[in-house]
Amino acid sequence: MLALYHNDMSLCAQKVRVCLAEKGLEWESRHLVLRAGEHQQSWYRKLNRRAVVPTLLDGDKVIPESNVILEYLDETYPDPPLAPKNPYDRARMRLWTKQLDEDIHDASAAVLSFGIAFRHQYIERGELGQKMLEEIPNLFKRERRRDVIEQGIESQHFIVAVKRMVLLLDEMEEALAAHQWLACDDYTLADVAFIPYLARLEHLNILSMTGGRSRLEDWYRRCKARPSFHAAIVKWENADYVDLMRRRGAEAWTKIQAMMQAQ
Q1: Tell me, which fold does domain 87-114+153-261 have in CATH?
Q2: To the nearest whole percent, how much of the chain has pLDDT over 90?
Q3: Is the preceding omega at residue 84 within 30 degrees of 0, hence cis?
Q4: Strand, helix or coil for residue 55
Q5: Model pTM greater than 0.70?
Q6: Which of 24, 51, 64, 144 has a CA-to-CA distance to 1 between 20 and 30 Å?
Q7: Which value, in Å, is the radius of gyration of the alpha carbons in the chain?
Q8: Which CATH number fits domain 2-76: 3.20.20.100, 3.30.530.20, 3.40.30.10, 3.40.50.720?
Q9: Which of 106-110, 189-193, 237-241 has the lowest mean pLDDT?
């Protein structure tokens, strides 16, 4: 039996839940409350030394890192396949997921989320919020998050995150001009991995960042129409988090537009 340590609104957890839903796999939910620091407990760090979600258990096997989990699931449970048979298409699929690990997740999407909304949760928690920040194992991630929490959308990291997201949206639009899905004409792990990032823009009330990119907007509509979107994302939406993101996103949108226009 598969078991997944995850969080309802975690982008990385969302993509793994999408994959599990696409595969029709049964799994045991082991939900962690990130704002309570459950992922930073010593018992969890033995499973995941980076103290992040998700972590997949397959019997006695422990698999951390969301993109690694996606490939593990596709190779271990190959029906239906979510990786192209053609080696070139498979390489293009991996180039997409590689972007997430390089900078899209930590340096763009997470910065947007914290700069707009989640920083307020850390600030309101006072010493507890500070303790959670100091316990982030990755030094670069910790100091970047510290600046974003303190400076919000005025942080230089936030401005860079907006520019990087715009570049990503342009790249997605370009790819979708060549084929139906991101990597090729088949729905693959590349699409699975990126669906949560468009959903996050929608939750943050800044989905208008995609404006003028008709192919990308159509891709997102098609992704949302798949049963896996409801099972993995909508079903797990945290109403308090979504409300916070939408309110704060509306407040920040004018300045984000200015950042986009200044590129």
Answers
A1: Glutathione S-transferase Yfyf (Class Pi); Chain A, domain 2 (1.20.1050)
A2: 92
A3: no
A4: strand
A5: yes
A6: 51
A7: 18
A8: 3.40.30.10
A9: 106-110
